[in-house]
Amino acid sequence: MDSRDLKKQLIIWRHMLHQNPETAFEEKKTAEFVAEKLKELGMEVHTGIGGTGVVASLSAGDGKAVIGIRADMDAINLKELSDHDHVSKNAGKMHGCGHDGHTATLLGAAVLLAETKNFNGTVRFFFQPAEEPGHGAKAMMDDGLFEKYPVDEIYGLHNAPFLPAGVIHTRTGGIMASEDNFKIRITGQGGHASSPHQGIDPLTSASQIYLALQTIVSRNGNPLHPIVISCTEWHTDGAHNAIPTHVEILGDTRSCSKEDQILIENRMREVSQGICTMNGAKCEFDYTHEFNPVLNDKNCVDTVIRAAIQTVGKEKVDENCEPWMASEDFAAYLNQVPGCFLLLGSGKTEENIPLHNAMFDYNDEVLMTGAELWKNLVEERLK
Ligand SMILES: [Zn+2]
Ligand SMILES: [Zn+2]
């Protein structure tokens, strides 16, 4: 297929996916569509992996190396506010993160690679459910993804509307952040607002903890490592004329290495418990790991860089970009196999609407860029 025809085809597919968004583990029609397109290319297709995941493999020559490329298929729970002709038909759901574009892009790569087969080895196409809640990669792996369809390396991308269209950014090490959640429950002794001396005000501890947590960033973390600690919710027993007995502080932390994740958790626990002890209050500290940081392998980054330069030219490639402090469940794969995650610039000149905004719509101009990047990557890695 000539590249102008393929571009038109990918736009049609992307708009169809955009009109029919499905959220975590409910990507049934999306998975059916993906499977059908892969079958039309003559591939053996496996469905229902980790719920609604789809896997297809394509081999050429007698090379033994195997790489995987992953796209995520899920939409988010958000009411779309655009009025273009491919607006969501599923009330309260929309492709606000561009996973419709990621899916169309990987299908485009499958079309190109099935046609030219100019490589030596095997490429596997992984279409994943439920990236948004962070459970899809794990579900596929728990379902035996790498046992049934082993790979030497895995690659993935996310569109980046905050970068100019067509640039390719990546880096060795942490490119996207961990996300951990915490809940600090402080128990004092409530009483009449007029008589603080007769009780133990948990808000005193909560206020001191709120400020002290930022010293973990400024005094315990390496200044060259990004760390974010955000307290996002406070709950008290809630009578305006009573000192409460309980306060809960909830929030979220981000960092780009496993060591920093452990440092944050340990110091947060010590600081919270220490302050409560000092004030005679009781502290319960819960900390959960939601997403690991996305940690890129140096050799895989080098392969991506070579393919990226071939695709968009040296001046549009950044091989040591700033990390993006959002999270990605692609990290889960990288715990088991080396790989590289990259950002594909998808900014629009006329407007700059961020991901997860009700007006977001994938930039169709970068569909072919992504598809060609994947094709070049396969040809570069599987020589
Ligand atoms: Zn998202
Ligand atoms: Zn996303």
What order do the helices and strands come in, and which of them pair?
Layout: H1 3-19, H2 28-40, E1 44-49, E2 53-60, E3 66-72, H3 99-116, E4 121-128, H4 136-142, H5 145-148, E5 153-164, E6 168-169, E7 173-176, E8 178-187, E9 191-192, H6 202-220, E10 227-236, E11 242-243, E12 246-255, H7 258-279, E13 282-291, E14 294-296, H8 298-312, E15 317-318, H9 331-334, E16 339-347, H10 367-381
Parallel strand pairs: 3-4, 3-5, 5-16, 6-15
Antiparallel strand pairs: 1-2, 2-4, 6-16, 7-14, 8-12, 8-13, 9-11, 10-12
Helix pairs in contact: 1-3, 3-10, 6-7, 8-10
The chain binds zinc ion (ZN) (2 copies).
One zinc ion binds at residues 97, 99, 131, 158.
Describe this protein with a few key phrases.
Aminopeptidase; four-stranded antiparallel beta sheet; 2 domains; Alpha-Beta Plaits; binds zinc ion; 383 residues
Q: Could you walk me through the main structural features you see in this protein, from its secondary elements to its overall organization?
A:
The protein has 383 residues and is α/β, with parallel strands linked by helices. It folds into two domains: 262 residues, Zn peptidases (Aminopeptidase); 114 residues, Alpha-Beta Plaits (2-Layer Sandwich), CATH 3.30.70.360. The chain contains ten helices and 16 strands. An eight-stranded mixed sheet has the order 1-2-4-3-5-16-6-15, sandwiched between helices. Helix 3 links the parallel strand 3 and strand 4. Helix 1 packs antiparallel against helix 3. The longest helix has 22 residues. The mean pLDDT is 97.
